[in-house]
Amino acid sequence: MRFFNTYSRELEEFEPRDPAARPIRIYTCGPTVYSRAHIGNFRAYIFEDLLQRHLELRGYNVHRVMNITDVDDKTIRGAREAKVPLAKFTEQFKQAFFEDVETLRIKRADEFPAATDQRFTDRMIEMIGALVARGLAYQAEDKSVYFRINKFTDYGKLAHFDLTELRSTGRVKHDEYDKEHIGDFALWKAWDEEDGDVKWDSPWGPGRPGWHIECSAMSTALLGDQIDIHCGGVDNIFPHHEAEIAQSEGVTGKKFVRYWLHCAHLLVDGQKMAKSLGNFYTVSDVLAKGYTGRELRYALLRVHYRVPLNFTWDGMNEARESLGRIDEWLARLEEVAQKGNVQRSTPNAQRPTAAFEEALDDDLNISAALGFLFETIRKTNRAVDENKLDAASASAWLDWWKRINTVLDIEAEVEIIVPSEVAQLAKDRENARREKNWKRSDDLREQISTLGWEVRDTKDGPKLTRRGAA
Ligand SMILES: [Zn+2]
User: Fold this and answer.
1) In angstroms, what is the span from residue 357 Cα to ligand 1's centroid?
2) What is the spatial distance between Cα 353 and Cα 336, in angstroms, rounded to a whole number?
3) How far does CA 10 lie from the centroid of its chain?
4) 304 close to 366: Cβ distance less than 8 angstroms
């Protein structure tokens, strides 16, 4: 297996740090919960999901951490404007994030640490203290603590640029005269009145941690000093990931990350997504247009992660068509596998090979892997048409599908067929509830239950599930 490492700018053979003893440790930068995440964010999360699932398919045990940034300038401003406490303000967007994760069938990380968790703020303060003690950080006149980038010789290596270039970025804020170097970044931001009651005590006075130290603290606290793979979007390379390296290695003296993997941008109609251009979409915006989570997952998954993905509504329709072809193919295979009465299989038998997995071994080349899938669909469909696919081959392809679908996770949800008697009782119960006839409503629930079904009232109306089913 090989991956393109942003640090070396080369494809490298994947060698876990500790293959025998421990799971693969992956850290992925998560959302800042000040609004709903957009589909560009989810492209990166789906790429990370693909990475984890492929490693698991290949027999690795994965332990993945994704942080939730629930304190920063944007969340504080949002809470202030909404006139609610910070935690209350961010909670709604955390919930929305997890809903979207579920809609897109993204495997949940093993841990979702939040920046405001005392355990991690303590760790951040501890790390900043160590950096100050080593001369790698200093407190400026504005009371904030900054990382001294000139003291960290590898600074700029991930982004592949020279410190002198930092002078020309033009991003000079009015308060930056306090810093020794324009590129020095904040580890600890001193409290000011705009922060309201959002503050923690520290050896440098009240304030809050910077964004970068958050990820260094959480990754080292939860995954140890050295991790196997660190992911994010290309936007994160500089300054965020560059800063993470400086902080983590500055404290531990060990190489922080073995492989840095970054996902390219998502464009919408060929342009960068921006609220001002009216091309800014969240997952719920896409669902509101009548598409499903599965269709969006497929649309965001199907392009190689290092290639910019152009999101269009035509592309969504193509995703729907491709999934339709898969659904139809699976139904045909099921039919052949069950019948088992076909005379002979074709020569060179069209039995599954490892081509799909091998394409993913090559820096997660999903385009090639899907190319192989659709080539397979074409060939086996033809064999079925010509009555040349035997039941054993059809079963073998279905087994193959089950295996690769642990990575893709794009199969249609099985429709639950509710018996008409149960459906009628549920309808009667709805009417009883509308009339506030709770006694009758309860009786009907009992009757539904006796028939082996359970009715749950959700915000989308009553849902029927088989009793005892998940
Ligand atoms: Zn991060």
Assistant:
1) 29
2) 20
3) 24
4) yes
Closest CA to 442 of 434, 427, 432: 432
> Please, which residues have CB within 8 angstroms of residue 300's CB and are 6 or more apart in sequence?
39, 42, 43, 46, 104, 266, 309, 311
227 CA from centroid of ligand 1 (Å): 13
**Six-digit token string for 370:** 């899907």
pLDDT surpasses 80 at 281: yes
Q: Give yes or no for a contact between 264 and 305, defined as CB atoms under 8 angstroms apart.
A: yes
Ligand 1: centre distance to CA 30 (Å): 7
Are 374 and 330 within 8 A, CB to CB? no
Tokens standing for residue 434: 């509308």
pLDDT, position 468: 64
| Nearest CA-CA partner of 22 in 225, 218, 191 | 225
Name the nearest CA neighbour of 36 among 275, 284, 264: 284
Specify the pTM: 0.86
Q: How many Å lie between the centroid of ligand 1 and the Cα of residue 403?
A: 32
Supply the mean pLDDT for the chain: 92
Q: Ligand 1 centre and the CA of 217: distance in Å?
A: 10
Q: Which residues are within 8 A (CB) of 52 and not within 5 positions of it... i.e. 6 or more apart?
A: 26, 62, 64, 107
Cα 46 to middle of ligand 1, angstroms: 17
User: What type of residue sits at position 305?
Assistant: Y
Q: Half-sphere exposure of 266 toward its Cβ, with a 13 Å CA cutoff?
A: 26
